[in-house]
């Protein structure tokens, strides 16, 4: 969707946005520092995962976003995920936010992950191995979404 008059591209605003992604690497293997350097850098495995996200969704410009509103993040992981399930949250949260000065990647589904006020992470039958589903829900709808998911 675009606004040709103003030369501005607009994105649809929604209360709930769901995306299927490949499973990110564990945050433990996503960053490393070079010997003798205090700087932390993305590892090759993290950069490979990011390329896959970009191949699937591009820069995210065609995706809806939730606006600048507080939100909850619901993460479904395939049942046979290896490692701690909470080690996937940071990379998924980061890839959803708008690109900025500190990071050059992001799908722009949320303005800033500082607006995340609730979180659920769990295993979900029916997802293909090595995949996950992330659902961003504006906070005003979070209770209803959680209730609906837990009742099914």
Concise overview:
The protein is of the alpha+beta class and 152 residues long.
Describe the structure.
This protein is an alpha+beta fold. It has a single domain, classed as 60s Ribosomal Protein L30, Chain: A (2-Layer Sandwich). It is built from 4 helices and 8 strands, in the order E-E-E-H-E-E-H-E-H-E-E-H. A 4-stranded mixed sheet has the order 3-8-6-7. It has a two-stranded antiparallel ribbon with strand order 1-2. A two-stranded antiparallel ribbon has the order 4-5. A hairpin with a 6-residue loop joins strand 4 and strand 5 (40-42). The chain is globular, with a radius of gyration of 16 Å. Mean pLDDT is 87; it is low at 1-8.
Number of helices: 4
CATH topological fold name: 60s Ribosomal Protein L30, Chain: A
Q: Tell me the β content.
A: 25-35%
Number of domains: 1
Low-confidence stretches: 1-8
CATH class bucket: Alpha Beta
The CATH superfamily turns out to be: Holliday junction resolvase RusA
Number of distinct beta strands = 8
- Rounded average pLDDT: 87
